Every structure is written in structure tokens, then in C-alpha cells.
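Justification of computing resources. Each target in the renewal requires a structure prediction run like the one illustrated here; the chain below, 254 residues long, is used simply to show the kind of job we budget for.
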Amino acid sequence: MTDITKASRILADAFTQNILIDPLPDGANPTDFETAYEVQQATLALTGAKQTGWKLSVATRAAQAGLGLDGPLIGPLLDGRIIADGATITTNDVHFPNIEAEIAVVMASTPGANASAKAILDHIKSVHLAIEIADRRFTKKQGPVSTLADLNSTGYLVLGPEIADWRDMAFLNGPVETRSDDKVLAQNSDPAAWPDPFGGLAYLVRFLTKRGQHLKAGDVITTGACAPPTLTKHGRIEAIFEGVGTVRAEIKTA
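Resulting C-alpha cells:
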């Protein structure tokens, strides 16, 4: 049985002290996703951080099938870590910045517990281009279960420009690429390889309902990588959604 108290204390200390840690020791390392969620929630409580939304990872059907999942993995977005288009953070703020072009949603109201992807559209305030700057507290990359326990690699979210006329879904059909200092990090020209943003939201609603939680007005949800996540060290980062727009930020050397 996993020692959730021990695991969450180690992870919370790493987060609040902004330090890197070795893999969780035997007995504290979760071995399944459900236990990892318990560790994640206990860790979040110990950090004292205020949650302002949710992040979805492993958000494509192919990636989920590879892990035997029926939906994405869920983690928190945190107050003070949702930053504006063009904002700057430093290399003191992140250890291993993993750059992901994403679609983010801001909620206007609470969907019903069994809301379909279509019904959820009426509860959305706005849809945005975004860059997730995922991060980890482990010295070495861990498997998906330990990663989930580590606040699902929550880091920063760059909330970019609103997508006009998002209900027509045309923004889902274009190529996307990420760059760092004009060097291409990742590309995706296959719309079938994108996550389903609104299907992911419907899954999140069901996931939260089972745990006595719900989405609320003002929550920000980022719905998964639209091109392969890529590590970078520092520099000017961009996510370019062809025909839709670009979102930018900078990771400055401290």
C-alpha cells in the first residue's frame, strides 16, 4: 500500500521549496493512477496553492490507448501561474520547461454532471490559443503514474488570444508548430492527432463529478498538446496555429 502522507509531503516540499528530488522511495511511490490522484490532491493541499483550473494530459485517443486509459490524465492549474500572452518568466521559475501548443477554455458557468461535449459549449466564456510550460520536480523523467502524482507536471500556462467564432470548430483543422528563438521544436499537420478539446471537457466534468467536485465560472482548462511536447532551456517561445494566430512568451536566463 502506498504511503500517501509520505509521498505528498516529499512532493509538496519539492514544490514549495522549488527544488528537485529523486524518485519517490519504495512504499511512497504510487503504482496505479487512482492512487496517484490521491497523492496529487494531498500534495496540492499541503502546498497551500490556490487552484484556478485544470490541465489535461495524455489527451489523444492513441496516447490513452497506449496506457489503457479511457480519457486524459487530470492535474491542477494554479493561481499566479496563468500568465498573459507575451509574458516573461525566468529559468528560476522552471526546472525542465516542456513546451506544448494547446487550446485553453475559460468557463462561464457550471455544466451539468452528465453534460455532453455539445452541451458544454453553452457553459464556455471563451476559447484561447495557449502554451503550456509543463514542469517536473524530479531530477529524472518519471513514468506516467509518478508524473501524475507530481501535480501532473503543472508549471505555467500562457493564456493567449481568444479564438473568434470558435463554435464553428474551423480552428481544429490547421497545422500547428512550436518554436524557441525561431528554432522549430515540434510540428503537427494532422488534425486527427489533435486532442478533442470539448470531448476532453466532457470527460473532466464526469471525472470531477465522481469526486464531488465541479467546474465553475472562471475556471481555466487547458486541453492537451496539439503538437509533441518538447523540452527547451530558455528563450522566446511561440505556438503558431496556422490561419488562427500565435501565442508567445519568454523564458529569460536568471
